[in-house]
Amino acid sequence: MHNKNPVLGYAVLFIAIALLPALGVYPIFVMKVLCFALFACAFNLLIGYTGLLSFGHAAFLGTAAYGAGHALKVWGLPAPLGLVFGALAAGGVGLVFGLLAIRRAGIYFSMITLALSQMLFFVFLQAPFTGGEDGLQSVPRGSFFGLNLENDLTLYYVVLAIFIGAFWLIYRTVHSPFGQVLTSIRENEARATSLGYDVDRFKLLAFVLSATLAGLAGATKTLVLGFATLTDALWTTSGAVILMTLVGGMGTLVGPMVGALIIIALENKIGDLGKLLADATGIGWFNGLGESVSLVTGLIFIFCVLAFRRGVVGEALALWDKLYAKRGA
Amino acid sequence: MTEIFGIPISAFLSQLLLGLVNGSFYAMLSLGLAVIFGMLNIINFAHGALYMMGAFLAWMGLEYLGINYWFMLVLAPLLVGLLGVLIERLLLQWLYKLDHIYGLLLTLGITLVIEGVFRSFYGVSGQPYAVPEALQGATRLGFMILPNYRAWVVVASITVCLAVWALVEKTSLGAKLRAGTENPKLVQAFGINVPLMVTLTYAGGVALAAFAGVLAAPILQVSALMGSNLIIVVFAVVVIGGMGSIFGSILTGLGLGVIEGLTKVFYPEASSTVVFVVMALVLLVRPAGLFGKER
Question: Where are the domains of chain B?
Answer without folding.
Answer: 3-285
